[in-house]
Write a structure and sequence with these properties.
Length: 123
């Protein structure tokens, strides 16, 4: 399901719930709804605060982005080849290659987990 389809489904479902004149709890008991009642209230709050733009999944912008195996497989040789590469440089390379923002703390934690922490250049 695309992001646009997901948002359309959320908006349509919220509209159906509001137009039903049933109490929200009753509507959820009588109908198949693609999200929980708690999520319904969260969506309503987001719509009131930010409009439709608030419903877009922002994880691709760095929020809750997990290091996938592909990204890990890219980072390991990159850092192995140049142990003095800084985390912001790795961050930039990952962003350019995968169009994904990974937090620097996640990158540092991964580097430490595979024993590839930064080794500064000696002057």
């Amino acid at each position: 399901m695309s992001e646009e389809e997901r948002i359309c489904e959320i908006l349509s479902t919220i509209q159906n719930i509001k137009e039903s004149k049933l109490p929200v709890a009753t509507y959820f008991k009588q109908n198949s709804v693609p999200f929980t009642r708690k999520q319904y209230y969260r969506y309503c709050r987001i719509l009131n605060k930010s409009g439709e733009d608030g419903l877009y999944d922002k994880r691709k912008d760095g929020n809750y982005t997990k290091l996938t195996e592909r990204i890990k497989d890219y980072i390991i040789p990159t850092v192995t080849e140049n142990r003095s590469i800084t985390t912001p440089q790795v961050h930039g390379k990952v962003l350019n290659k995968f169009d994904v923002k990974i937090s620097e703390s996640s990158l540092n934690a991964f580097r430490a987990s595979v024993s590839l922490t930064r080794v500064p250049l000696h002057k």
